[in-house]
Each structure stands twice: as C-alpha cells, then as structure tokens.
Amino acid sequence: MKKSPSIFGGACIIASVCVGAGMLGLPTSGAGAWTIWSTLIICLTMVVMTLSGWLLLEAYKHFDLRASFNTVTKSLLGNTVNVINNLSVYFVGGILLYAYTTASGGILSELMGNFMVLDSRIWSIIFVLFFSFFVWHSTRIVDRVSVILIIFMALSFIFSVFGLTANIDIGTLFDTQAVDADYAMYAMGLLPVALTSFGYHHSVATMRAYYGEERKAKLAILGGTMIALSLYLLWVWSIFGNLPRNQFAPVIASDGNLDVLLQALGNVIESSTVKQAINAFSIAAILSSFIGVGLGVFDFLADLFKFDDSKLGRTKSWAVTFLPPLILSVLFPLGFLKAIGYAGAVATIWACAIPALLAGKSRTLAKGKSGFIVGGGSVTILLVIIFGIVTALFHFLAMFNMLPTFKG
C-alpha cells in the first residue's frame, strides 16, 4: 500500500513558497507602518490568503487531479477570463523567480567575495542552473529539499533571531523617540508586499494532486500559512527592535535591495556570527521560495502547454519556467522591492478575484453543494474580492505617488 504524504511535508512546500518574498520584503516595506500596524496588516493578509486558497481548492473538486488553474478557470469562467488569469499567474510567478534570481546573485557575490570574485549576474546563472534541477526532477524531491531547507532556515533563523532578540530595544521596537509618529497612513503601502508574501495559490493544484484529496490539502495550506506568519512576525519584530526606523533610508532608496538591508543590519549588530547567520538565512529563504514558486509555475505551464511527464516534456516545462526570468534578470536587474510590489498588485487577480469567482461558480453546480466547501458563505467570497481590489488600488496609487511614502 502506497504511503500517503505527510501534512507537514506539504505545509513546508507552502511555507517555502511564501517565505522568501515576505522575509526579505516585509521589513523594508513595513518600515513606515512600523511594528503594530505591520503586525495587523500581516495577520489580516494571512487570514484572507488562506481563505482564498481554500476557495480555489473548493472549485478544483469538480476536476481531475492533474488539472491546474488553466483547465479549471477555462471550464468554469470561460476563455477570456482564463487568458487574463493565465497571464497574471505567469507574470507573478515569473517576476518572483526574476526577483529571487537577481537577489541571489547579489547575496552570493557578497558571500563568496573572499573566495571567488564573480559578477553577481554570473552567480545568478549558477544559482538557477543548479537549483532548478530539483524542480525538473520531481515534486517528491522538492518536498524533501523543502523540509531540509525549512530546517536549515529554522536553525539559521534561530541563530539570527536569538542574536537580534537578545539586543532588542523596546524603545526602538515601538519607536518611542519618533519625530514622525504617523504609522497608519504608511500601512496601505505594505499591503501589496504582504499579499505577495502569502502568494502560494499556483501551488494549490500541486497540493491537491499530491494528496489526492481536498481535506488534507486544506490542512497543508493552513499549516504552511501559519508557519509563514510565525516566521514573518518574529523576523519583523527582531529587525524593528534592532534597526531604528530612521535608518531604513538607504535601504528604501535602493528599492529594498537585500545586500543593502543586510549591510544596514550589519552596521548595528556587533556579532559577526549573527551577521553570518542572517546572510545564511537570507539565501535559504530565497532558495526555498525559488524552488517552491518554480514548482508551482512548472506544473502550471506543463498543464497550459500540455507537456507530458517524460524527461523531454519536463525539460520543455523547465525551459519555459526558468529561462525567461533568468534572461531578464541578467539583462535588466531591478530593485527587489519594486519587483515584489508589481507581483502583489497583479497577484490580486489570481490570489483574490479568480478563487472567489471560481468558488461562487462552483456552488451553482449540482456537485458544488457536496464535498469540500469553505465556510462563511457569500461573505467569505465578498471579503476576498474586496481585499484584492483594495490591495491593487493601493499599489497603483503608490506608483503614481498618490500615497504617503516613508523615506526613512
């Protein structure tokens, strides 16, 4: 009898998909809102994004286990909506892979500078070619690697956080010496990055296929978002308790580039061990997200282009998943936070609007009234849609300088 995959393994895949973007984007994008407002926004986003993933899972119950976003959306909402959804899924998956590829080059270049001096773009190419192999191989190996990475991240995270929390200054954490004490007005700008931080939805079909049913996949999704939430809050509080709010200026000016954030943290931390732990944690967070997001996009494109599961079919899926973001990263490196912000705005289509519409449509079908159903009725669907509209609106207002912007 075939052994059923563990809930913890699936939760680790979901958590690893989430964690890279959030860990590295939230402290900088939340600097204006600071501790209390950032905490509220991150918790609210986790609840809504868990519900929207469940709504997507509810709609999938009508379909074969191999079906992905493309098949389900086309069948339930029609071809036009499906084309928009496909473009938004690929855009977000692609821009996240692009952001991780660019960031990995910068961090590896910094880390390996004493041993081997190579251009950051060369490190990006090495990173992608080596680690995308796991996705090409199989979901099972991604599960195993994700568990190892989560454990490694947990250990480096504990060393980082232990070093940081030991030096947390309550006055710094709650910004008691603030000259500019308007936090709430900056919270709006945090929403797109917070949404991206819980953007695992292209992996929902992978989870359902992996477990062969909705209820275990539901628990894996909840477990994954809860792991991500716990890590985010610990990390944000640790950084906000060490790096004063007014010292985020150079990081914000660089569009949230990670090497600048790590350098700013290094300037306020005495211990070289803690600095190394933070660097190790950062690269593990990027790597786990790169593999997790890569797997979701890989499965999505395999379904879209009808590539089979043979070695040749998987190689085609690998090429369309990883090569375009790598080429763009080498040609046009962009600020990490800027890329994550764009991903958040577009992600509202497939992380909020489409799951809500699919679940609504699913419930009008005879089979939709039985099996896995998300609680809360129409209120849940409406909440998810409103959250998505508000998040996208705030991103575009920020783009045109119509939102208050914290400069540090």
UniProtKB/TrEMBL annotation:
<keyword id="KW-0813">Transport</keyword>
<feature type="transmembrane region" description="Helical">
    <location>
        <begin position="280"/>
        <end position="305"/>
    </location>
</feature>
<feature type="transmembrane region" description="Helical">
    <location>
        <begin position="7"/>
        <end position="28"/>
    </location>
</feature>
<dbReference type="GO" id="GO:0015173">
    <property type="term" value="F:aromatic amino acid transmembrane transporter activity"/>
</dbReference>
<keyword id="KW-1003">Cell membrane</keyword>
<keyword id="KW-0812">Transmembrane</keyword>
<feature type="transmembrane region" description="Helical">
    <location>
        <begin position="342"/>
        <end position="360"/>
    </location>
</feature>
<dbReference type="Pfam" id="PF03222">
    <property type="entry name" value="Trp_Tyr_perm"/>
</dbReference>
<feature type="transmembrane region" description="Helical">
    <location>
        <begin position="220"/>
        <end position="240"/>
    </location>
</feature>
<feature type="transmembrane region" description="Helical">
    <location>
        <begin position="183"/>
        <end position="200"/>
    </location>
</feature>
<feature type="transmembrane region" description="Helical">
    <location>
        <begin position="76"/>
        <end position="100"/>
    </location>
</feature>
<keyword id="KW-0029">Amino-acid transport</keyword>
<feature type="transmembrane region" description="Helical">
    <location>
        <begin position="317"/>
        <end position="336"/>
    </location>
</feature>
<feature type="transmembrane region" description="Helical">
    <location>
        <begin position="34"/>
        <end position="56"/>
    </location>
</feature>
<keyword id="KW-0997">Cell inner membrane</keyword>
<keyword id="KW-0472">Membrane</keyword>
<dbReference type="InterPro" id="IPR013059">
    <property type="entry name" value="Trp_tyr_transpt"/>
</dbReference>
<feature type="transmembrane region" description="Helical">
    <location>
        <begin position="120"/>
        <end position="138"/>
    </location>
</feature>
<dbReference type="InterPro" id="IPR018227">
    <property type="entry name" value="Amino_acid_transport_2"/>
</dbReference>
<dbReference type="GO" id="GO:0005886">
    <property type="term" value="C:plasma membrane"/>
</dbReference>
<comment type="function">
    <text>Involved in transporting aromatic amino acids across the cytoplasmic membrane.</text>
</comment>
<dbReference type="GO" id="GO:0003333">
    <property type="term" value="P:amino acid transmembrane transport"/>
</dbReference>
<protein>
    <recommendedName>
        <fullName>Aromatic amino acid permease</fullName>
    </recommendedName>
</protein>
<keyword id="KW-1133">Transmembrane helix</keyword>
<comment type="similarity">
    <text>Belongs to the amino acid/polyamine transporter 2 family. Mtr/TnaB/TyrP permease subfamily.</text>
</comment>
<feature type="transmembrane region" description="Helical">
    <location>
        <begin position="372"/>
        <end position="398"/>
    </location>
</feature>
<feature type="transmembrane region" description="Helical">
    <location>
        <begin position="145"/>
        <end position="163"/>
    </location>
</feature>
